[in-house]
Here is the input.
Amino acid sequence: MAQSSCTENMAEAHQAVAFQFTVTPEGIDLQLSHQALTEIYLSGVRSWKKRIIRLKNSVITGVYPASPSSWLFVVIAILATMYTRSDPSMGLIAKIQEHLPVSQSMSTQCQALLSAVLFSTMLWLLLIFTMRMCLKQLLCYHRWIFEQHGKMSNTTKVWVALVRIFSGRKPLLYSYQGSLPNLPVPVIKDTVKRYMESVRPLMDDTEYERMAKLAAEFETGLGNRLQWYLKLKALWSSNYVSDWWEEYVYLRGRSPIMVNSNYYGMDFLYVTPTPIQAARAGNSIHAFFLYRQKLNREEIKPSRIPGTVIPLCAAQYERMFNTTRTPGEETDTLQHWQDSDHIAVYHRGRYFRLKVYQAGRLLCPREIEFQIQRILDDPTLPSKGEANLGALTAGDRTPWAKARAKYFSSGVNKRSLDCIEKAAFFVTLDDDEQGMRGDDPAASLDNYAKALLHGKCYDRWFDKSFQVVYFSNGKKGINAEHAWADGPVLSHVWEYTLATDCFQLGYNEEGHCKGEVDSSLPRPQKLNWEIPPECEEQISQSLAVARALADDVDMHVFAFRDFGKGKIKRCRVSPDAFIQIALQMAYYRDRGTFCLTYESSMTRLFREGRTETVRSCTNETTAFIRAMEGGEAADVCRRLFRTASEKHQHLNRMAATGAGIDRHLFCLYVVSKYLGVESPFLKEVLSEPWRLSTSQIPFQQLNLFDIIRYPEYVSCGGGFGPVADDGYGVAYSILGENMINFHVSCKHSCPDTDAHRFGERIRKALHDLLDLLGPNQKEPNNTEERRPEVKKNL
Here is the structure.
């Protein structure tokens, strides 16, 4: 078997070489491989096509909100006015003609024509710059987000009309990037005031007075100096937060990124389109590359605030594919390649390189299924040390960086590692069955979540921008590295591939992918490794660290179907505020106290914006919960709830418009470290644990799914690991009108936390809030037309 495998690998290697030569007494015998040369030629054609498309899109984006054809319109208009013997340039064309460095042989008429074209071009560029600056100033207006839903002021109506006018037509994905405003630096006095307000319900009087003193000293002393440097950075950079956030929060972390940083997304909850593992992978992988084609051509529509014309920053899309996180001893780096024609596949301890382009074309789903099945049927055993190799990416970062530099920087190991790191993305073919299964639906969902969050610790490659896991029963899921982008960006590609897989590509009656197979396809290439015993020891150590972390994770996933945003909105409450207050109530009942709470909010209204923290545990929310738990009258509790809900929405809007607390304080702390000065206030702020970390997983592309006609085609959302050792992580997604999915995580090692118990607390809190706000709510009429929610807040 080993001899056969070796011969097969040698044959494939020869196929990959374009020419071979042999030195003979008669001279050099040169042999050309027609197939290899054809492959090289077509690969070059594909590469040049991509460059031309990229250049074209750069021009279109560069002149947006105008269009390249508008240049011709301006030139014709100027020439037409000249022929009517009027001078729209007010003498500038004549001045340009006087200073043209042209040959004297050029006629006066040609010189005048060239001068007019140059003037027209400058006028056109000036108009583009003016339109872009006008749009940028218009997008700095954020009063609309604070207006009551359904009651738009006249100022906002005029503003919306102007935004439509200056937004141009048919924008590409990155068309708005140059027009998005920069993230403003908040006034330090306002940030300190908002911070002190946020911690008031978490501190007793003595502790609060001590913190207020530290805050006052910081605000009037060191804070002003740090703020000056931060304002200087804001003037110089397009976003004063994002680069430091990426580096210090993500890339400089030395603990495992598995569980602590990476997050996951699930497949359809009730439907498995095909039980054939290879077929599901075939359609899905093909859909990912269709999305990448649209991304490279910038054909994806720019993201906007739902129901508005307001664009969101698209910068995070740039590093979605062909990206990996490379470990370093002190800090990691993100590496991105412009293109990749293959994916890396893991199966039963072996790594394969699977090319998805043949003769310059993307393989059809049936061909990818055929190649995946070849990997599944491959009887080859793992190389020595190969089976658990992926554990290096699951353990601590510094040992992985040292091992990479020592054992993977040259030779066959470097070539194989390059195949993984330069792949478009990573694929795992898992032998386990996952999903919600009939024997124990609740436990099976919990196991499904753990399989996606950490797997077996060695059968994933956590450094890739994202990796897709295909289970033996046809279920799939996704795990993503966090440094390159946030959840909504990954969710966008995941929604597209789920919908394309089922509703566009489909399967035949036997459950296989559609299409024909090219029998000449070369076999997937098994990667080779030479792992020395010292490296195997490091792999074992990393695996032990990763397993201890994974075994400590307690997960609970459940679909709450008793009611959804339909009933919540009929109570005239923001669904997000309703859920956040329910989470506060659940935590209070679980722990008997309140805690610092993190809710993620987007700041993509600004260029290169990522996230800001909404501190959901407020004075208003704690007052309401104490009243509820203390048995106050229903009217009193309802009034307090409305106040708490309005406060939460206000904080969400403040965070989205750049007036949050935590990113500003974080950047001030970074400046203090650069200057080598200590701030007791900032040190204490940055050391506070987030015992309740929450995030809403957005459902963005409603047009791809028809939940009313196909209610079973809903995803269970996704989740993440606990942020604090003694806290909870809660991800939730609002699907349709009658469903909310929750993913709860914590650690077994903490005696005070229990994911299933907290899940029950959440269910009870949701019911109690609905009973308070609408005890006599009628069931929705089944024939009533239900429309997707249009949210103004993020």
Remarks:
- The first helix runs from residue 2 to 16.
